[in-house]
Amino acid sequence: MKLAFSTLGVPGLPVPDVLRLATEHGYHGVELRADPEEPVHPGLDAARRSAVAAEFKAAGVEVLGLAGYCKVAAPGDDEPVLTELRALLDLAADLGAPFVRVFPGAAPGESSEEADATAARRLGTAAQHAADLGVRILLETHDSHRTGAEAMRVLGLVGHRQVGALWDVMHTWLGGEQPADTYAALAPHLGYVQVKDIASPDDTAPLPLGEGVLPLAECVEVLSRHGWDGWLCWEYEKRWYEAAAPLPDLLTAGRDHLSRLLNESA
């Protein structure tokens, strides 16, 4: 498995500094938070997109994916959601990123059948554009569909190879799902895995990997046992928790912890 970290942990950091962190601390890739407050977002012009892609290539670091905030199950018209999603796909293609992350985002009180159908319709509509660009859309286990079983309700309706899943280990754990069950649900569709650590269900501020309660060892063991060889991406939510320790100070220890889990599981 290859290791990456998300720029959610280093809000607003310029691309050269992000790449320096990746190379200095031994990470193979970076997940870019695609938000207007970040250096990389869908509003970039062609020249800047080309420059960012060249910077990554020169550093020998991969753009793992774009972490977008498109909510595919949200109520309302389809077209604004599809426009947002297409813009993320275009940016990913320009940067050479294989994945675009989307959220479910169904409204509270909305029936699961209606939310599933809405998400599947939009993902299915966007799938051909994704295929033309060589990019996969990944539905994250998050918010209204936080378990693998819930995400699979949508993915089963879509049935397209360019639409898959992103396993966020915190949300499946908060949803009461065991890692083996999550993997069994998502395995045919799994794009990559987001790892993190927290103190408790009531305290989700980010902690250094291995210092919290999330079943990271069990998740890695399940993946290894099944021969999965994709990406583990550390999503350290510094952007939402300003008091959290700075991510750069933790990157080497985090890499070592994941490497240790990988060695033990092997």
Structural key phrases:
9 helices, 8 strands, 266 residues, single chain, alpha/beta, globular, eight-stranded parallel beta barrel
Describe the structure.
Helices cover 43% and strands 17% of the residues. It starts with a strand and ends with a helix. The protein has an 8-stranded parallel barrel, surrounded by 7 helices. It has helices at residues 15-25, 46-59, 78-95, 112-133, 148-158, 169-174, 179-186, 216-225, 251-265; strands at 2-6, 29-33, 62-71, 99-103, 136-140, 163-168, 190-195, 231-234. The chain is of the alpha/beta class and 266 residues long. It is globular and about 45 Å long.
Low-confidence parts lasting 5 or more residues at pLDDT below 50?
none
Helical percent range? Answer: 40-55%
Shape, principal axes of CA atoms? globular
In the sheet with the most strands, the strands line up as 1-2-3-4-5-6-7-8
How many runs of DSSP E, i.e. beta strands?
8
Question: Based on helices, strands and strand pairing, what is the structural class?
Answer: alpha/beta
Which value, in Å, is the CA radius of gyration? 17 Å
Quote the average pLDDT: 98
Q: What is the string of SSEs from the N terminus onward?
A: EHEHEHEHEHEHHEHEH
Give the end-to-end Cα distance, rounded to a whole number of Å: 11 Å
Reported for the largest beta sheet, the result is: 8 strands, parallel, barrel
Offer a concise description of the structure.
The chain has 266 residues and is α/β, with parallel strands linked by helices. The protein has nine helices and eight strands. It is 43% helix and 17% strand.
